[in-house]
Amino acid sequence: MLQTRVDSGLDGVVVADTVMSEVDGEAGRLIVRGHGLQELVANRGFEGVAALLWAGYGESGDEAAVRCGLGTARVRAFADVPRLLAATDGLGPVEALRVGIGMLPDSDPTPHHHLVCGAIPVFLAALLNARMGLSAIAPDPSLTTAQDLLRMMRGQRAGAVFEKGLDTYLATVADHGFNASTFTARVVASTRAGLISAVLAGLCALKGPLHGGAPGPVLDMLDEIGEAGRAEAWFDEAFAKGTRLMGFGHRVYKVRDPRADVLKAAVATLPSTAGRLAFAAAVEQGAIAALRKHKPGQRLETNVEYYTALLLEALEVPREAFTALFAVGRVAGWCAHIFEQETDGRIIRPQSNYVGPRPEG
Ligand code: ACO
Q: CA within 20 to 30 Å of 270's CA: 103, 262, 293, 320, which one?
């Protein structure tokens, strides 16, 4: 007989201890291994956050060592690009990335967290270039992930302000408690299937529109609204049709997601974004008002994906690549949680309550 019955979405259920990050949904605060989000992003880039997350799990916590390891892994991954492109013709970026990660061997001598964290940006840039009929550009291992990814996507260095913008994004989204993709990765890691398989599972969970697939539809929504004065009518119609507003609501945050402000500030540092930001902020206000009107008492606020959409648009990332780009950052957190699960965890194997028919007699 079952001992305990929990919410089907595991709402409020605590399933593990972790040293990686804490999401305080009432205070609107994110802590990553002892550091508050704002302080973390101000003082560390993506490689610094990855080093922090991986410290004690095969890494010393040294940012330079992680930067070097990821650069080497990007060069290693570039050799797989022809095979990737041959196998993914006609697939969208995140589906193709799913194939690419699946191709990485469990037997590769490169440390597997470096291997997969290096492969994702190289594969993504090559896939986007191939869609435009362009050749893949070889990585430069001396650069950071953000610098090199933009360079491989554009064919030349993007400039410091754009590189900083992407680096801020990757650092901001690197880890976030037991979100659906991280939990998925931990379930797979708990079976000892290996890091590559667990990361692939995380990507599959990330791609859904209720998780990492939201920012592309945020821009679709902004396009449909067109001008701030039309927002209220658009939202009323959306609620009448039962449409969810992308970039709003969160399972844990009952106040504004703190990552939204970090990313909004990052957008403001990029050239020619003032008008777009003002429009987005007006639509955001309209959305919050509509959520209060149509979903009273639900405490639905802006989440990370709203300003992610604005930031990636300003970085000239095609919107169909947004989810794959999310994976470039979040993979650092998946790897950290996989290490923790493999070190401390047992196989994750809950029970279900059978409500189907039973054999007679
Ligand atoms: N727009 C409209 N209504 C919403 C929204 C939204 N964005 N989010 C929740 N609601 C409503 C639901 O319709 C439901 O209303 P009801 O009780 O009248 O039926 C109520 O709020 C509770 O919704 P749940 O689905 O139970 O909330 P849950 O915590 O399970 O969902 C989620 C969280 C999936 C993020 C949800 O808020 C959502 O779908 N948001 C839009 C998609 C999105 O932006 N996802 C990115 C999240 S951040 C990230 O994963 C990186």
A: 320
